[in-house]
Write a structure and sequence with these properties.
By secondary structure, this protein is an all-alpha fold. It has a single domain (4-84), classed as Non-ribosomal Peptide Synthetase Peptidyl Carrier Protein, Chain A (Orthogonal Bundle), CATH 1.10.1200.10. Helices cover 46% and strands 0% of the residues. The protein has helices at residues 8-18, 38-52, 69-84. Helix 1 crosses helix 2. It is globular, with a radius of gyration of 12 Å.
């Protein structure tokens, strides 16, 4: 079983390579620091869906689920388990 901490570097890499943004720590508040604004948030959700093969339903779009890399990893793991019955692949 994939542990949520195994997703941290994958999410950090997504920010770096797909969104061209450097996130310093897994607990950095992405909204308070301005790393994620409304436009970046839309792109982030698209990239998460693509990278992890999940769908992000509108009723699951709560800012707390996306506030930090750690929160995103928790969310991705939960969505993958709910939608596919298994955790996402970690490469």
């Amino acid at each position: 079983m994939v542990e949520v901490q195994e997703l941290y570097p994958v999410v950090m890499n997504l920010f770096r390579q797909r969104l061209d943004v450097q996130v310093e720590a897994t607990d950095t508040d992405l909204f308070a620091t301005g790393i994620v604004d409304s436009l970046m948030f839309v792109e982030l959700t698209v990239q998460l869906e693509d990278a992890f093969g999940i769908t992000i339903p509108i009723d699951k779009v709560e800012f707390e689920n996306f506030r930090s890399v750690a929160a995103i990893a928790d969310f991705v793991l939960a969505q993958s388990l709910a939608q596919h019955g298994k955790p996402p692949r970690v490469c």
